[in-house]
């Protein structure tokens, strides 16, 4: 009887130890474990949004250069698929804010939220003009400044009501 209890206890301890040591504590564990990400090339995140023109920035964030960002809307639904892919991805052009990347003109997004970021204004309107297949309305002068100001105002009020789906 004592030998059977000892055997059961030893087996339970071994299985517990095995479970603790083999765990990977972030959702998309790459091949080779969590420290192997430095050796891997980052792929572009999944396309999303109208016509697949955007890129996923998080499980509920889809941003496109010409369209802005969709947070928690139908356009961002495809981004939930990123959670099930085995390799990490990266969207955006340059780093900004605290752990984010420039997602659209004047907008910096991390995998959880987006904020207005002045350093992300540069380059986006030039990029959209350079694209021959672009069918978006181009903004210059006062219209552009008004749109950017509205984005900034929306970013400052973001913390007030973060549960509602929004489009930037």
Quick description:
With 168 residues, this protein is of the alpha+beta class.
Explain what the structure shows:
This protein is α+β, with helices and mostly antiparallel strands. It has a single domain, classed as Neurohypophysial hormone domain (Neurophysin II, Chain A, Sandwich), CATH 2.60.9. 26% of the residues lie in helices and 20% in strands. Strand 3 and strand 4 form a beta hairpin.
Indicate the CATH class: Mainly Beta
SS-derived structural category? alpha+beta
How much helicity do the residues have?
A: 25-40%
> How many β-strands, per DSSP?
11
What is the CATH-assigned architecture? Sandwich
Name the helix and strand elements from N-terminus to C-terminus, one letter apiece.
HEEEEEEEEEEHHE
Mean pLDDT comes to: 73
As residue ranges, the low-confidence spans are 22-27, 126-137
Major beta sheet, strand line-up = 2-3-4-5-11
What's the number of structural domains?
Answer: 1
Cα gyration radius (Å)? 22 Å
List the helices and strands and how they pair.
Blueprint: H1 2-21, E1 43-44, E2 47-48, E3 54-58, E4 61-64, E5 68-71, E6 89-90, E7 95-96, E8 100-104, E9 107-109, E10 114-116, H2 124-130, H3 141-156, E11 166-167
Parallel strand pairs: 1-6
Antiparallel strand pairs: 2-3, 3-4, 4-5, 5-11, 7-8, 8-9, 9-10
Function: Neurophysin 2 specifically binds vasopressin. Vasopressin has a direct antidiuretic action on the kidney, it also causes vasoconstriction of the peripheral vessels. Acts by binding to vasopressin receptors (V1bR/AVPR1B, V1aR/AVPR1A, and V2R/AVPR2).
Glycosylation sites: 135
Main location: secreted
């Amino acid at each position: 009887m004592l030998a059977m209890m000892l055997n059961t206890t030893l087996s339970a301890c071994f299985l517990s130890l095995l479970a603790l040591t083999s765990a990977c504590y972030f959702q998309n564990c790459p091949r080779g474990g969590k420290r192997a990400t430095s050796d891997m090339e980052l792929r572009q995140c999944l396309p999303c949004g109208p016509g697949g023109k955007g890129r996923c920035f998080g499980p509920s964030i889809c941003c496109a250069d010409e369209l802005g960002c969709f947070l928690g809307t139908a356009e961002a639904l495809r981004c939930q698929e990123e959670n099930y892919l085995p390799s990490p991805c990266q969207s955006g052009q340059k780093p900004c804010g605290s752990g984010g990347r420039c997602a659209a003109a004047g907008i910096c997004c991390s995998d959880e939220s987006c904020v207005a970021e002045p350093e992300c204004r540069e380059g986006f309107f030039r990029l959209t003009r350079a694209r021959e297949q672009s069918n978006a309305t181009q903004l210059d002068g006062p219209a552009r400044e008004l749109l950017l100001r509205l984005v900034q105002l929306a970013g400052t009020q973001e913390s007030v009501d973060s549960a509602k789906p929004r489009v930037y």
